[in-house]
Amino acid sequence: MVIAVDGPAASGKGTIARALARHFDLPHMDTGMLYRAVALTLFRFGGDPASAFEALRACDGVAQVDPTDPDLRSEIVGSIASRISAYPDVRAALLDRQRHFASRSSGAVLDGRDIGTVIVPDARAKLFVTASPEVRAQRRLAELVGRGGTAHLEDVLIDIRARDARDSGRAAAPLAQAVDADLLDTSDLSVDEAVAAAIRLVAQRIGATANG
Ligand SMILES: Nc1ncnc2c1ncn2[C@@H]1O[C@H](COP(=O)(O)OP(=O)(O)OP(=O)(O)O)[C@@H](O)[C@H]1O
Ligand SMILES: Nc1ccn([C@@H]2O[C@H](COP(=O)(O)O)[C@@H](O)[C@H]2O)c(=O)n1
Description:
Structural class: alpha/beta
Oligomer: single chain
Bound molecules: adenosine-5'-triphosphate, the ligand Nc1ccn([C@@H]2O[C@H](COP(=O)(O)O)[C@@H](O)[C@H]2O)c(=O)n1
CATH superfamily of the largest domain: P-loop containing nucleotide triphosphate hydrolases
Order of helices and strands: EHEHHHHEHEHHEH
Protein backbone atom coordinates (compact mmCIF):
# COMPACT_ATOMS: atom_id res chain seq x y z
CA MET A 1 0.00 0.00 0.00
CA VAL A 2 1.39 3.41 -0.97
CA ILE A 3 0.19 6.59 0.76
CA ALA A 4 0.94 9.82 -1.12
CA VAL A 5 1.05 13.04 0.90
CA ASP A 6 1.44 16.31 -1.00
CA GLY A 7 1.10 19.95 -0.09
CA PRO A 8 2.79 23.34 0.06
CA ALA A 9 5.73 24.33 2.28
CA ALA A 10 5.18 24.08 6.04
CA SER A 11 1.63 22.76 5.65
CA GLY A 12 2.47 19.91 8.03
CA LYS A 13 2.67 17.18 5.40
CA GLY A 14 5.96 15.80 6.75
CA THR A 15 4.59 15.62 10.29
CA ILE A 16 1.50 13.83 8.98
CA ALA A 17 3.45 11.51 6.67
CA ARG A 18 5.74 10.41 9.51
CA ALA A 19 2.74 9.78 11.77
CA LEU A 20 0.97 7.79 9.05
CA ALA A 21 4.12 5.72 8.53
CA ARG A 22 4.24 4.93 12.25
CA HIS A 23 0.52 4.17 12.44
CA PHE A 24 0.40 1.88 9.39
CA ASP A 25 3.93 0.51 9.98
CA LEU A 26 5.30 1.65 6.63
CA PRO A 27 8.66 3.13 5.61
CA HIS A 28 8.63 6.86 4.89
CA MET A 29 10.43 9.03 2.35
CA ASP A 30 10.56 12.83 2.57
CA THR A 31 11.14 13.55 -1.13
CA GLY A 32 11.85 17.23 -0.45
CA MET A 33 15.14 16.04 1.05
CA LEU A 34 16.24 14.78 -2.38
CA TYR A 35 15.76 18.24 -3.89
CA ARG A 36 17.44 19.77 -0.84
CA ALA A 37 20.40 17.38 -1.26
CA VAL A 38 20.80 18.53 -4.88
CA ALA A 39 20.55 22.16 -3.74
CA LEU A 40 23.14 21.67 -0.98
CA THR A 41 25.55 19.96 -3.39
CA LEU A 42 25.13 22.79 -5.88
CA PHE A 43 25.59 25.41 -3.15
CA ARG A 44 28.74 23.76 -1.84
CA PHE A 45 30.46 23.55 -5.20
CA GLY A 46 29.49 27.16 -5.92
CA GLY A 47 27.15 26.24 -8.75
CA ASP A 48 24.57 28.59 -10.22
CA PRO A 49 20.90 27.71 -9.46
CA ALA A 50 19.98 29.55 -12.67
CA SER A 51 21.85 26.90 -14.68
CA ALA A 52 19.83 23.74 -15.40
CA PHE A 53 23.06 22.09 -16.54
CA GLU A 54 24.88 22.73 -13.24
CA ALA A 55 21.80 21.66 -11.25
CA LEU A 56 21.67 18.40 -13.20
CA ARG A 57 25.36 17.78 -12.48
CA ALA A 58 24.65 18.31 -8.76
CA CYS A 59 22.17 15.39 -8.87
CA ASP A 60 25.21 13.07 -9.01
CA GLY A 61 26.11 14.22 -5.50
CA VAL A 62 22.83 13.27 -3.81
CA ALA A 63 24.05 9.90 -2.51
CA GLN A 64 27.05 11.56 -0.86
CA VAL A 65 24.95 14.00 1.21
CA ASP A 66 24.57 13.02 4.86
CA PRO A 67 20.77 12.96 5.45
CA THR A 68 21.33 14.27 9.00
CA ASP A 69 23.29 17.34 7.79
CA PRO A 70 21.53 20.31 9.47
CA ASP A 71 22.35 22.52 6.46
CA LEU A 72 19.75 20.56 4.49
CA ARG A 73 16.99 22.30 6.47
CA SER A 74 18.44 25.82 6.04
CA GLU A 75 16.33 28.50 4.37
CA ILE A 76 18.91 29.14 1.65
CA VAL A 77 18.99 25.46 0.71
CA GLY A 78 15.17 25.30 0.71
CA SER A 79 15.03 28.30 -1.55
CA ILE A 80 17.62 26.85 -3.99
CA ALA A 81 15.72 23.53 -3.89
CA SER A 82 12.55 25.27 -4.95
CA ARG A 83 14.39 26.85 -7.92
CA ILE A 84 16.24 23.78 -9.19
CA SER A 85 13.17 21.55 -8.77
CA ALA A 86 11.59 23.38 -11.71
CA TYR A 87 14.12 21.83 -14.15
CA PRO A 88 12.60 18.79 -15.89
CA ASP A 89 16.04 17.11 -16.11
CA VAL A 90 16.53 17.41 -12.35
CA ARG A 91 13.07 15.94 -11.70
CA ALA A 92 13.80 13.10 -14.15
CA ALA A 93 17.13 12.36 -12.42
CA LEU A 94 15.35 11.92 -9.06
CA LEU A 95 12.36 9.96 -10.36
CA ASP A 96 13.69 6.38 -10.20
CA ARG A 97 14.88 6.76 -6.60
CA GLN A 98 11.36 7.77 -5.52
CA ARG A 99 9.55 5.13 -7.60
CA HIS A 100 11.94 2.46 -6.35
CA PHE A 101 11.16 3.41 -2.75
CA ALA A 102 7.43 3.39 -3.50
CA SER A 103 7.63 -0.07 -5.04
CA ARG A 104 8.87 -1.77 -1.83
CA SER A 105 6.86 -4.88 -1.06
CA SER A 106 6.11 -3.47 2.40
CA GLY A 107 4.36 -0.45 0.89
CA ALA A 108 5.46 3.11 1.71
CA VAL A 109 4.49 6.66 2.61
CA LEU A 110 6.03 9.41 0.48
CA ASP A 111 5.55 13.13 0.96
CA GLY A 112 6.33 15.93 -1.46
CA ARG A 113 4.69 18.03 -4.14
CA ASP A 114 3.95 15.58 -6.98
CA ILE A 115 3.66 12.19 -5.31
CA GLY A 116 -0.03 11.66 -6.04
CA THR A 117 0.09 13.30 -9.47
CA VAL A 118 3.37 12.05 -11.00
CA ILE A 119 5.46 9.72 -8.82
CA VAL A 120 2.75 7.27 -7.71
CA PRO A 121 -0.47 8.22 -9.52
CA ASP A 122 -2.02 4.88 -8.52
CA ALA A 123 -1.30 5.32 -4.79
CA ARG A 124 -3.95 3.63 -2.65
CA ALA A 125 -4.55 6.77 -0.56
CA LYS A 126 -3.67 10.38 -1.36
CA LEU A 127 -3.77 13.40 0.90
CA PHE A 128 -3.34 17.01 -0.09
CA VAL A 129 -2.35 18.78 3.11
CA THR A 130 -2.69 22.54 3.19
CA ALA A 131 -2.96 25.53 5.55
CA SER A 132 -3.22 29.27 4.99
CA PRO A 133 0.05 31.05 4.09
CA GLU A 134 -0.18 33.04 7.34
CA VAL A 135 -0.46 29.91 9.49
CA ARG A 136 2.36 28.23 7.57
CA ALA A 137 4.58 31.29 8.03
CA GLN A 138 3.89 31.23 11.79
CA ARG A 139 4.83 27.54 11.94
CA ARG A 140 7.99 28.05 9.91
CA LEU A 141 9.00 31.01 12.09
CA ALA A 142 8.47 28.95 15.26
CA GLU A 143 10.61 26.21 13.72
CA LEU A 144 13.40 28.68 12.86
CA VAL A 145 13.33 30.25 16.32
CA GLY A 146 13.29 26.79 17.89
CA ARG A 147 16.53 26.03 16.04
CA GLY A 148 18.10 29.16 17.51
CA GLY A 149 17.63 31.37 14.44
CA THR A 150 15.96 34.75 14.06
CA ALA A 151 13.59 36.00 11.37
CA HIS A 152 10.67 38.37 10.87
CA LEU A 153 7.22 36.96 10.24
CA GLU A 154 6.71 39.23 7.20
CA ASP A 155 9.92 37.93 5.56
CA VAL A 156 8.96 34.32 6.24
CA LEU A 157 5.51 34.98 4.74
CA ILE A 158 7.07 36.54 1.63
CA ASP A 159 9.29 33.48 1.25
CA ILE A 160 6.34 31.09 1.71
CA ARG A 161 4.32 32.94 -0.95
CA ALA A 162 7.29 32.97 -3.36
CA ARG A 163 7.81 29.23 -2.80
CA ASP A 164 4.08 28.57 -3.41
CA ALA A 165 4.17 30.57 -6.64
CA ARG A 166 7.26 28.74 -7.94
CA ASP A 167 6.07 25.26 -6.89
CA SER A 168 2.54 25.73 -8.30
CA GLY A 169 3.49 27.75 -11.37
CA ARG A 170 6.24 25.60 -12.87
CA ALA A 171 5.52 23.58 -16.01
CA ALA A 172 7.17 20.36 -14.78
CA ALA A 173 5.15 18.46 -12.14
CA PRO A 174 3.66 21.53 -10.47
CA LEU A 175 2.28 21.36 -6.94
CA ALA A 176 -1.38 20.43 -7.40
CA GLN A 177 -4.04 18.39 -5.66
CA ALA A 178 -4.58 15.10 -7.48
CA VAL A 179 -8.20 14.71 -8.56
CA ASP A 180 -8.55 11.65 -6.31
CA ALA A 181 -6.75 13.14 -3.29
CA ASP A 182 -8.49 14.01 -0.02
CA LEU A 183 -7.99 17.63 1.03
CA LEU A 184 -6.86 18.21 4.62
CA ASP A 185 -6.70 21.84 5.73
CA THR A 186 -4.70 21.96 8.97
CA SER A 187 -4.97 25.75 9.52
CA ASP A 188 -7.17 25.33 12.60
CA LEU A 189 -5.93 21.92 13.71
CA SER A 190 -3.33 21.02 16.31
CA VAL A 191 -0.72 18.43 15.31
CA ASP A 192 -2.67 15.70 17.11
CA GLU A 193 -5.95 16.72 15.46
CA ALA A 194 -4.34 16.88 12.01
CA VAL A 195 -2.75 13.44 12.45
CA ALA A 196 -6.03 11.93 13.68
CA ALA A 197 -7.88 13.42 10.69
CA ALA A 198 -5.24 12.08 8.29
CA ILE A 199 -5.45 8.58 9.78
CA ARG A 200 -9.26 8.66 9.46
CA LEU A 201 -9.10 9.74 5.81
CA VAL A 202 -6.53 7.08 4.89
CA ALA A 203 -8.43 4.39 6.81
CA GLN A 204 -11.60 5.29 4.88
CA ARG A 205 -9.72 4.99 1.58
CA ILE A 206 -8.20 1.62 2.37
CA GLY A 207 -11.27 0.24 4.07
CA ALA A 208 -9.65 -0.17 7.51
CA THR A 209 -10.60 1.17 10.91
CA ALA A 210 -8.67 4.22 12.13
CA ASN A 211 -7.45 2.18 15.13
CA GLY A 212 -5.11 0.03 13.09
N1 LIG B 1 -1.22 21.09 12.77
C1 LIG B 1 -0.13 21.73 13.18
N2 LIG B 1 -0.23 22.67 14.13
C2 LIG B 1 0.86 23.34 14.56
N3 LIG B 1 2.12 23.13 14.09
C3 LIG B 1 2.27 22.20 13.15
C4 LIG B 1 1.17 21.46 12.64
N4 LIG B 1 1.63 20.61 11.70
C5 LIG B 1 2.97 20.82 11.63
N5 LIG B 1 3.35 21.77 12.50
C6 LIG B 1 4.70 22.30 12.67
O1 LIG B 1 4.96 23.13 11.53
C7 LIG B 1 6.29 22.97 11.08
C8 LIG B 1 6.26 22.49 9.62
O2 LIG B 1 5.70 21.19 9.61
P1 LIG B 1 6.22 20.09 8.59
O3 LIG B 1 7.72 20.05 8.58
O4 LIG B 1 5.49 18.84 8.88
O5 LIG B 1 5.71 20.74 7.24
P2 LIG B 1 6.05 20.33 5.74
O6 LIG B 1 4.86 20.64 4.94
O7 LIG B 1 6.55 18.92 5.69
O8 LIG B 1 7.24 21.34 5.45
P3 LIG B 1 8.31 21.30 4.24
O9 LIG B 1 7.58 21.62 3.01
O10 LIG B 1 9.30 22.33 4.59
O11 LIG B 1 8.93 19.94 4.22
C9 LIG B 1 6.95 21.98 12.04
O12 LIG B 1 7.64 22.71 13.02
C10 LIG B 1 5.78 21.23 12.66
O13 LIG B 1 6.06 20.76 13.96
N1 LIG C 1 8.25 16.01 -4.50
C1 LIG C 1 8.85 17.21 -4.35
C2 LIG C 1 9.42 17.60 -3.14
C3 LIG C 1 10.03 18.82 -3.05
N2 LIG C 1 10.09 19.62 -4.14
C4 LIG C 1 10.80 20.89 -4.12
O1 LIG C 1 11.80 20.94 -3.12
C5 LIG C 1 11.64 22.08 -2.30
C6 LIG C 1 12.00 21.73 -0.88
O2 LIG C 1 11.03 20.80 -0.40
P1 LIG C 1 10.57 20.74 1.13
O3 LIG C 1 9.34 19.87 1.12
O4 LIG C 1 11.69 20.11 1.89
O5 LIG C 1 10.30 22.13 1.58
C7 LIG C 1 10.17 22.53 -2.49
O6 LIG C 1 9.98 23.92 -2.37
C8 LIG C 1 9.87 22.07 -3.90
O7 LIG C 1 10.19 23.08 -4.83
C9 LIG C 1 9.50 19.23 -5.31
O8 LIG C 1 9.51 19.98 -6.31
N3 LIG C 1 8.90 18.03 -5.41
